[in-house]
């Protein structure tokens, strides 16, 4: 783990800064749209759907641009756009301006996060360890971002957008100085020479298997998005404060860092299928718990299950796809980000419709548990049995 940190720290810190900005924005979107701008949950969900739709587009375009053009200039363009968008949001964040700022934020963030994961894939030489270490830093950003909400947000978004300007400005400075260093392929630990990714142990995933893995991302994030949107309303409906919601995500981020630190030591390519299935099962368990028990204790008991599932499933899918394909890392990681963003786009609308129809959060949570269970069965039948064992490259 520390060898990866020493060699790739600029990429890791970049991931931390970009995700800090992302994590200080998304928990507030539903709350700000619904409570501060007085929009209904369905309208708020539709705005979030448009935002996430552009996030899907940004993720896909980011992958294509990373493969075809200079990564340094693509990154500069995306970060420059994010700085400009944050400055505009600082001054204009009303009913009309905020959704527009949010949509641009989604487009550019999707592209930037894809660029980061595509670079990780190019430098990984087929290993899943880099994804685990990158995910630790991304979740450090989650901790910092969500912890900042309770301090900075008091009915005004100006302090939030100021933090975004600082994060993106720092990320741009880092990128200008170190982007060229990240173009080189990862070096072998002993020889210092580039590692060659041999085709003989790759290309084991069929189009159908890749499609099932990408679909699993969409459906999992569709359910996970309930925690990112409608659970905040669920908490307030129970008479609990928004500060508790912020604390839950800080708790989530700390647990993620602990679990991911362990995963960097034990994660291997041959175990990725089991890791993915176990993660989905844990996420399903968190929703089952929420559907049957309410209150603060239930929330803090369900969060570790969600965290465990997220920590082992989310980095597992891109690592598995990267391990069983060769070349076009931007394309594949762009698809990973795009399908993930699609689930996040549909999730809030889906949740709002289920709540509006059933008038009960418990039905939404049960349905989310069932969806994750269905994904497990599908992957167990359609993907896991046909995978050949791949060796760790280093």
From TrEMBL:
Location, primary (coarse class): membrane
SUPFAM superfamilies assigned: MFS general substrate transporter (SSF103473)
Compartments it resides in: Cell membrane
InterPro entries given in the database record: MFS (IPR011701), MFS_trans_sf (IPR036259), MFS_Transporters (IPR050171), Tet-R_TetA/multi-R_MdtG-like (IPR001958)
Transmembrane stretches, start-end: 39-61, 73-92, 98-121, 133-154, 160-178, 203-224, 244-264, 276-303, 360-384
Bilayer topology annotation: Multi-pass membrane protein
Protein keywords: Cell membrane, Membrane, Transmembrane, Transmembrane helix, Transport
Superkingdom of the organism of origin: Bacteria
Pfam families: MFS_1 (PF07690)
Protein name (record): MFS transporter
């Amino acid at each position: 783990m520390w060898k990866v940190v020493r060699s790739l720290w600029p990429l890791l810190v970049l991931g931390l800064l970009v995700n800090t900005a992302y994590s200080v924005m998304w928990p507030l979107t539903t709350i700000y749209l619904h409570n501060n701008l007085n929009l209904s949950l369905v309208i708020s969900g539709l705005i979030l759907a448009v935002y996430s739709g552009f996030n899907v587009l940004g993720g896909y375009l980011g992958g294509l641009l990373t493969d075809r053009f200079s990564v340094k200039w693509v990154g500069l363009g995306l970060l420059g756009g994010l700085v400009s968008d944050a400055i505009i949001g600082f001054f204009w964040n009303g009913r009309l301006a905020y959704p527009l700022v949010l949509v641009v934020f989604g487009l550019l963030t999707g592209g930037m996060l894809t660029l980061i994961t595509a670079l990780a894939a190019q430098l990984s030489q087929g290993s899943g360890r880099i994804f685990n270490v990158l995910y630790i830093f991304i979740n450090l950003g989650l901790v910092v971002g969500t912890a900042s909400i309770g301090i900075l947000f008091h009915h005004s978004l100006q302090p939030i957008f100021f933090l975004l300007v600082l994060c993106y400005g720092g990320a741009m400075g880092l990128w200008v100085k170190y982007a060229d260093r990240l173009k080189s392929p990862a070096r072998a630990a002993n020889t210092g020479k580039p590692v060659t990714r041999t085709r003989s142990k790759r290309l084991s995933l069929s189009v159908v298997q890749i499609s099932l893995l990408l679909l699993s991302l969409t459906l999992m994030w569709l359910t996970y998005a309930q925690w990112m949107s409608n659970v905040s309303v669920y908490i307030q409906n129970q008479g609990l404060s928004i500060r508790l919601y912020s604390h839950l995500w800080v708790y989530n981020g700390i647990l993620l860092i602990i679990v991911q630190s362990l995963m960097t030591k034990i994660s291997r390519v041959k175990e990725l299928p089991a890791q993915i299935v176990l993660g989905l099962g844990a996420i399903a368990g968190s929703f089952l718990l929420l559907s049957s028990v309410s209150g603060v204790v239930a929330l803090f008991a369900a969060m570790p299950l969600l965290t465990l599932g997220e920590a082992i499933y989310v980095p597992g899918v891109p690592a598995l796809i990267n391990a069983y394909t060769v070349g076009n890392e931007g394309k594949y990681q762009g698809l990973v980000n795009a399908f993930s963003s699609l689930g996040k786009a549909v999730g809030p609308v889906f949740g709002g419709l289920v709540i509006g129809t059933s008038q009960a959060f418990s039905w939404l949570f049960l349905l989310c548990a069932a969806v994750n269970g269905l994904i497990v069965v599908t992957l167990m039948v359609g993907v896991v049995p046909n995978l050949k064992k791949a060796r760790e490259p280093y």
